[in-house]
Amino acid sequence: MKTLLLSFIALIGLFSCSLKNNMASGNQQILEMHEINYIPYFLEVYKADSLLILNKDKEAFQKLDSLFKIYEPVNQLAYSEILNYVLLSEKLGKNIDSRKYIESLIRDWGVPVKEMKKENDLVTVLKENFSDDELLSLEQQHTQHIDWEYRKLLKEMFIADQSSRGKQNEPQVDEDNIKKLIHLIRTKGYPDIPTVGKIANDRIMLPVMYFHLGRADDYKEFKALLLENIKKGKAIPFEMKQLMQGKYSLIYWQDYFEQTVKTTANPRRIPTNYPQDTFRIRRNNIGLPSLEYENWKNSLMQLNNN
Predict the structure, then answer these.
(1) Using a CB cutoff of 8 Å and minimum separation of 24, what contacts does 141-147 make?
(2) Where is the signal peptide (predicted)?
């Protein structure tokens, strides 16, 4: 009887340890899932960007400061959130580790030193924190870290994409490109700026190429891979929009993320009479800003360009 009791106690202890380990493992998995999901990050950056446009500098800084305490920041081309954070900190007299962020801007995100020196608020910061040799070294590190073979392959793919438009080999080029992209991303990582540099400077435009992949056999696989990399903060939501827009334009001739109406200019376009919330949910699910914000910013940019 005593032996049976001891065995029962040991069994309870083993179950308890197993339960604790499973709970710890589960909590770690939840933490890891939270850490890699950058979709909330992108949505908050749009809010900070709108605050900055409205000259609400203090609120914009607070938004970015809170965000960067949770996420390792990225510096998107259209939003420059790390650069704006440093500039706002100088303007508002906030005490942050400017050196760390400037190092990342140059080494990881390829922001040229000469461009940074055009920002009056950064000239003193650069002089106080870096020697000329250190700044040059950071620029060299960015160049050295670029996977130039990967970049070369992307350029070849984009050239093939553009030269095949409207020709008989167009579908086959899209099939080849999507297979190459899946292989490259799985083996070399996503082609973000730290990996391949600013490829737009070499006239390589991934969103344009993605728009053409809607009919490819591996569309669903690539879409899942792209979403995975958006959550990791490697891909950007606009790239997913282009991929999905190409698919729905191809099949339905309608805008999947925007409300459209049938017009004489686009007689084949199908009107989408869904509620505005439908589009907002679709956009938020992949990290896009609200349609109202996008239209508002686009109108401001057009106004400034006139």
Answers:
(1) 141/107, 142/106, 142/107, 142/108, 142/109, 142/110, 142/197, 143/197, 145/107, 145/194, 146/195, 146/196, 146/197, 147/188, 147/195, 147/196
(2) 1-20
Question: Is 260 in contact with 272 (CB distance < 8 Å)?
Answer: yes
Dump the DSSP string for 110-161.
---HHHHTTSHHHHHHHHHH--HHHHHHHHHHHHHHS-HHHHHHHHHHHHHH
Angle, helix 39-53 to helix 57-68, in steps of 10 degrees: 160
pLDDT of residue 11: 37
Are the beta carbons of 78 and 270 closer than 8 angstroms? no
Give the pair of three-digit tokens for residue 225.
Answer: 């891979």
- Which residue ranges make up each domain of the chain? 39-145, 148-305
Phi and psi, residue 288, nearest 5°: -85, 150
For residue 7, give Cα distances in angstroms to 10, 12, 128, 234. Answer: 5, 9, 69, 52
pTM of this structure: 0.80
Nearest Cα neighbor of 36 from 70, 69, 85, 4 is: 70
Structural contact between residues 64 and 85, judged by C-beta atoms closer than 8 angstroms: yes
Q: If you ran DSSP here, which 8-state letter would residue 254 be given? A: S
Structure-token pair, residue 171:
């579908």
Residue 293 one-letter amino acid: Y
d(CA 219, CA 106) in angstroms, rounded, equals 35
Q: Return averaged pLDDT per consecutive 10 residues of the chain, 306 residues in all.
A: 40 41 44 70 96 96 97 95 97 95 98 94 93 97 98 98 93 96 98 97 96 94 98 97 86 49 48 66 87 82 70
Confidence at residue 192, expressed as pLDDT on a 0 to 100 scale: 98
Instruction: Specify the residue for token string 């899932």.
Output: 33
